[in-house]
Amino acid sequence: MPKLLRKPEKKPLSKGVTLIHEVKDGRTPLEYVGFSIVDLDKGAVFEETLTNQECCAVILTGKATVTAGEQTFQSLGTRKSVFEKVPTDSVYITKEEKYRIKGETDTRVALCYAPGMTKRPNRLLPAKDILQEHRGIKMNQRSVHNILPDSLDVADSLLVVEVYTESGNFSSYPPHKHDQDNLPHESFLEETYYHEQDPPQGFVFQRVYTDDRSLDETMTVENEDVVLVPAGYHPVGVPDGYTSYYLNVMAGPKRTWKFYNDPAHEWILDREDS
Ligand SMILES: O=C[C@H](O)[C@@H](O)[C@H](O)CC(=O)O
């Protein structure tokens, strides 16, 4: 098993609460980013008290009510499948906060963690406010929902984005990296990818590699897999016939997304659309 690939598990946490992924504490080479996927049956409750981390709870599918501190955000969520391709609701939860999530329906929630340095207001990030964008040309096209971009001064460290890549296209391409704390040229951000494919028997190819090839893993990534990106370029290729979804969590010493393209492949940006 490639060391950067994590397969889904089904670990019961409590009645109606199942842990699908838990990438944090001793189970990861990452120092800034933590990531979990939790499934809630209708009526089930997941609760946690954060310590020195902030959290963005993304209602991936289904509907849920999130209570964070004194605030309650009722009936969040906009889709039964991520492949409805509509933005969803999320909640930013500050460090040292107790929060609970109750499934109003069967629900899948992504819990995105990063270092929290200051007490900030908990905040709903509603689907209606999500900045959507289309990137790329030719076979490099993808659509992006910016859930928690660096332009939104809501968090200390967290950046969260979801990306759709259609059949036969590449994303996170031309290959780029953000593994040097060298602003204004490049920022250092660790990253996780939570992948889904439609139809679900699909797979994508993801390579994670560094300039010196000291890290160079090419992975076959299946539905619900997670890929860790501690460093290096990290392009994704989607076979014909399938649609790729992934949710990215990024964090590092500075909350700025400034990537650096692999010079060997940057020329593709100079092509004319046709
Ligand atoms: O660094 C960010 C991640 O690699 C993706 O979110 C990537 O930017 C998606 C894309 O632009 O293709």
From TrEMBL:
InterPro entries: Deoxy-glucuronate_isom_IolB, IolB_Bacilli, KduI/IolB_isomerase, RmlC-like_jellyroll, RmlC_Cupin_sf. GO terms for biological process: inositol catabolic process. It holds the Pfam family KduI. Its EC number is 5.3.1.30. One of its GO terms (molecular function) is glucuronate isomerase activity. The keyword Iron does not apply. This is 5-deoxy-glucuronate isomerase. It comes from Shouchella lehensis G1. The lineage of its organism: Bacteria, Bacillati, Bacillota, Bacilli, Bacillales. The gene is iolB.
